[in-house]
Amino acid sequence: MLRTEYMGLELRSPVIVSSGPLTQNMVSLGKCEEAGAGAVVLKSIFEEQIESDVQKEMAGSEEYLAHSSAEEFFAASSRDYYIDRYMKLLTEAKKKLSIPVIASVCAKTMDNWLEYCGRFEKCGADGIELDYYPISSDSSIPGEEVDRRLIEFAQKARDAIRIPLSIKLGYKYSSLAYVISQLDRIGIDGIVLFNRLFRPDIDIEKMEMSSGKPLSSADEYGEALRWVGLMSGEMNHASLCGNTGIHSGESAVKLLLSGARAVEVCTAVIKDGFSAISGMNSFIEDWMGRHGYPEPSDFIGLLSQEHIEDGWKWERTQFLKTIS
Ligand SMILES: Cc1cc2nc3c(=O)[nH]c(=O)nc-3n(C[C@H](O)[C@H](O)[C@H](O)COP(=O)(O)O)c2cc1C
Q1: Residues of the chain with pLDDT under 50
Q2: Beta strands in the chain (DSSP E)
Q3: CA of 243, closest atom in ligand 1
């Protein structure tokens, strides 16, 4: 039995398919469910993408845009087109799937998003995952201010959204421990640690910027493991979810032992197909059987910082021994 509870939702398995290419159409969403996923997070709707697509459409309709009110009307209806398309997928997913369906919003400002989240709530979304990870490249803004803005953003979202709400974080905050504990304090239900952010690269022949590898590798789960291990014992309300580099049942078990109630996976399913999900479930079940744990709740967090004598190891950053 793999049942777990994450962000107040009952999941049949702790393995969630994270927001991405596998959760953007009904065919692959159905395959996620068939393979045993505990929940799916729909591909995010991106504020930036909508805005740039709206701008492109507007550029092709200049005559129509002679009046500023027409421009506003056109922009609003194009924006609605993207939101409506998203709501159609969400409604269909809710109709056809029996596992929880979490809508995902990648927001830069809070202006329109609260209203959109309200619409997703009405379509029956079981929860909303908000992605918010600005790169703090403005050297005049101190770390405290960066953290304050995130917490303010989360508070506004919490006040407006009544269904389970999670925040998916990147790990570049000035005080991650403070940020995570404040998200817990204001009643965020789930905290996903961590999204794998777009990585820039440079093409040295073309002499231009390019994009780094979009997929994670199997040894990238360490940062999520560390922060879940450090923070899970401090959570009063929020449940933590591990993400990035979880490619196997083995790394999923590690995250659960450190205190995650669930894991989100993307790369493993892209690389190995939907059977990666059933493979992880079988591994976790088999491991639980061998170690005598009837349910994930019997072992979740057993190796978190607060549960082990040498919990200081979760904070270790230096190697004591060198490789000879
Ligand atoms: C092609 C691609 C598209 C993605 N799109 C989104 C997205 O729309 N929203 C989001 O929150 N994360 C997105 N992600 C990030 C994944 O959900 C996940 O956080 C990340 O890939 C780390 O997990 P992994 O190591 O299992 O791949 C995307 C990842 C990939 C590879």
Answers
A1: 64-65, 67, 74
A2: 4-6, 9-11, 15-17, 39-41, 45-46, 101-106, 127-131, 165-169, 190-193, 200-203, 208-211, 239-243, 262-265
A3: 23
Q: What CATH number does residue 98 fall under?
A: 3.20.20.70
Q: How many other C-beta atoms can be found within 10 angstroms of the C-beta atom of residue 295?
A: 12
Ligand 1 center from residue 240 Cα (angstroms): 17
Ligand 1, atom 23, lies closest to the CA of 244
Three-state SS at 110: coil
Determine the distance separating the centroid of ligand 1 and the alpha carbon of 224, expressed in angstroms.
15
Q: Which residues pair with 259 in a beta bridge?
A: none
What's the structural domain count of the chain?
1
Residue nearest to atom 20 of ligand 1 (CA): 196
Cα–Cα dist 305/309, whole Å: 8
The pLDDT, as a whole number, for residue 309 is: 84
- Could you tell which of 16, 19, 46, 131 is best to mutate to test the pocket of ligand 1, judged by most ligand atoms within 8 Å of the CB? 19
User: Does 183 reside within a domain?
Assistant: yes
Q: What pLDDT, on a 0 to 100 scale, did the predictor assign at position 298?
A: 98
Specify burial of residue 292 (Cβ count, 10 A radius: 0-12, 13-18, 19+). Answer: exposed
Identify whether 119 is part of a domain: yes
Closest residue by CA, ligand 1 atom 25: 244
φ, ψ at 264 (rounded to 5°): -105, 135
Model pTM score: 0.91
| pLDDT at residue 63, rounded to an integer | 52
| H/E segment holding residue 26 | helix 26-34
pLDDT of residue 64: 45
Is residue 323, in this structure, part of any structural domain at all?
Answer: no
Look-up: residue for tokens 């925040």?
167
322 inside domain: no
What is the pLDDT at residue 87? 94
The tokens for 136 are: 């703090």
- Which domain range does residue 76 map to? 4-315
